[in-house]
């Protein structure tokens, strides 16, 4: 079977309207059915979805799920933080029955550290880069500079031990959020939706909108088909097909598509932020995999050293650190 997604950009009021309509389906425990006009009438929000499907010629019967996704481009102000936790274990209570508190270091990665607009995307990529950078920061802390390299574990860890990870994440956030996601969010479509509602019923406006839309489609076609890696060379889109796609949607949909700005793809271009630039892999410091699963815990109030296998060390630290959120 083949599956696909149709993404339609909504303004906030349309998003809220869709949430309410879908909630009704959930409350009645019913399947979505775009062919049932009693359940999905010709109201504005269902019309937007049907128009999107008509535009790219997908039959309504194939749609089994509609998911509104709110785009929140947010980030944590810091990705490393020294924080205090209260020990729960009774045996760890101090003599005076005071609850003991311990300072720990918390690091966040992935969407908890920053999230992006899903169209320019790379949220998962960024999360994996963050995890790699954090792991390499940990390894760098504990591998001795002398040869042969040895693991020297010390605690407690401090914020300053992770400033390189913080710096990497600042750069990554600037690239992915400022450089890509905010290019999209700072380019709203509200104005074009309002204008489409105001003018699309006038014939003279419709003529202008449809000719603009057709020109836009032809420009996009030329751009895509001119790319060396374009995979559909055996099936080029004709002028008649461009015209037919524009003809089969409503005057309002024509106006919206004609007025809305395209995604600012060019503004998003730029070099990637690479883990390797901040945490280069030093092959001299690679250690052999351990032959036993022995795990040496190194805890306590003083910064003390112990030997451990590289594999054990990284796994146990990452689990501990990610248990806490900032
Ligand atoms: C529609 C869409 C398309 C996307 N496409 C792409 C793409 O093409 N490429 C790309 O790189 N990225 C893409 N992304 C982004 C990507 O999915 C995310 O960036 C990535 O999944 C984030 O991973 P994460 O582990 O940080 O967070 P999540 O995947 O959100 O995992 C967090 C987990 O923590 C759990 N959790 C939350 N609170 C608690 C709690 N209190 N206790 C215990 N568990 C909890 C959640 O249930 C969840 O399982 C897309 C996202 C969306 C929404």
UniProtKB/TrEMBL annotation:
Keywords linked to the UniProt accession: Coiled coil
InterPro entries with a match to the protein in the record: FAD/NAD-bd_sf (IPR036188)
Coiled-coil annotated spans: 8-35
Name of the protein in question: Uncharacterized protein
Native source species: Rotaria socialis
